[in-house]
Amino acid sequence: MTSPTDGQPMRLRCGRCGSSASHQIVMGMPPLELAEQVAATPWQRLGGCLIVPGTWTAECLTCGQRETVDGGPADFTATPAPDRTVARAITGYAARCREQLDQTTTSVVSHAGLWLFLASAAEHSTGEGRATLEEILGMPLEEAGAAARRLLAAPHSTLAAAAGAWAAADAVTPVGVERPIPDQASLDAWAAERTRGLIDRFPLEVTELTRIVLTTALVLEPMWTEPLVADGAWLRLTGGLQTIVETQAAGPVIVAKPHSEDGIDVVSVRAHPRTKPAQVWQAVDEVVALLDDGGLWHAERPGDLQASGFGWRVRTARVQMTEDERSGLPTDAMGRPQQWRSRVPAWAAQETLDLTGAPGVAGVAAAILPEEPDAVTRCVQTVRAEYDADGFRVAALTALDMVGSMPPQLSRVEVERVELDFRAPHAVVAVARGGAWEGVPLVSAWVGGANHGDSDWEALELLADTDPQEAAGLRGYKEQQMRSRGELPSV
């Protein structure tokens, strides 16, 4: 499928969830020009010859909808490739924050919420600070501000975004604000309402010396198209998108993404236990880029991959199933049906992060209260996330305030900080799909917990690198013991 104006391949947008992350498998006997186009396009593949020409299959990678059509799309609409300029800017900003704030193992954080917050006010910056903020935000400040306003106003099926700005009656600021600043109870109520009750306290404490308060809220609650199945202490994914990808940053990584009809992709990525967290996040960016381009395909793995590795095992088994069930399974290179299963943990995390030192915060603070350079700036984000059998729920509230000079008789207000250390073997990122939010990475998480519910598994995986035979024997013994205790299902 090509554009009528420039001959470039068109992307397919799902009519159910709005996602542009999709596949197209062209069947029949295509002409040479189409075959060459498919070979050069990540989201298109040739699917073999059929008697009926022009038949092709379209599949949405977000919700899993699949349609086999003849001549044109059914619930899919051909559109030019979406503009992911903002998504790339936020992805780059997230990488900068992880590096400068040492956030590679932070349990959960919304860099999108912080970027939106900064972009909303950064265009008021003047002088030398403008160039610095443009480099940090990844685009000209006027474009960043317009993008932030567009995203905050754009409707989304399961994503809600809101912004608030208040200032003291005599504070001079170029930002559009309400006056006066609400009291603490009113701000707590604002937080609860804008995050659908997931966060019930505003992350900053206001006093009579507070001069200005800016905040953004993001909340997303995608539900899985098919609930995950409880498997002992784990959740089992049998559908969705499961694959093994060779990345430049971390080598082979395993990827699991349940389907969701709510326009959000929640992608779990795990690398070898010896991989540094910073490299894992670089691999996550590679995986998301493949997903954006339709280049991530279910049930695939590198051709030279060993049968067993740090997070996967390939074996043969005889399983009873109907012909309809068998026909719905992917096949390997020999035409043999494959069953892909992923075990993922149910997890929850909550963080209150001090982001005062985050890139761009100082520049924005100087721009929004230019006549009070001595005011003390604080920037805090509260995030709550839950991943379970039914779906993924996240709320992020980012707030900045500036406090004027305190009289000598007053003490400085201290903000309670809750720091949770969830060191983990895999990362999670939630990416918005559809409309203005297409491709925006909303929330990322570094999930805690031991490998396979037992820390000895990691030792076995490391042993397999040096002595595979001994590791295989120990693995078999350990699995037998765990099955006898009911920690693993019977084969």
Structural account:
The protein has 491 residues and is of the alpha+beta class. It has eleven helices and 20 strands. Strands 7-20-19-14-13-12 form a six-stranded antiparallel sheet. It has a five-stranded antiparallel sheet with strand order 8-9-18-17-16, with helices on one face. Strands 3-2-4-5 form a four-stranded mixed sheet, with helices on one face. α2 packs antiparallel against α7. The longest helix is centred in the last third of the chain and has 17 residues. The protein is globular and about 75 Å long. The N terminus is likely disordered.
User: What class do helices, strands and sheet pairing give?
Assistant: alpha+beta
Radius of gyration: 25 Å
Quaternary organisation: single chain
| Number of helical regions | 11
Q: How many structurally independent domains?
A: 3
**CA-based shape:** globular
How much is the average pLDDT?
Answer: 85
> Could you describe the largest sheet, including whether it forms a barrel?
6 strands, antiparallel
Strand order across the largest sheet: 7-20-19-14-13-12
At the first level of CATH, the class of the largest domain is: Alpha Beta
- The CATH topology of the largest domain comes to Antithrombin, Chain I, domain 2
Total number of beta strands = 20
**Name of the CATH superfamily of the largest domain:** Antithrombin, subunit I, domain 2
Question: What is the name of the CATH architecture of the largest domain?
Answer: 2-Layer Sandwich
Helix content: 25-40%
Low-confidence parts, pLDDT < 50 over ≥5 residues?
Answer: 1-6, 407-411, 415-424
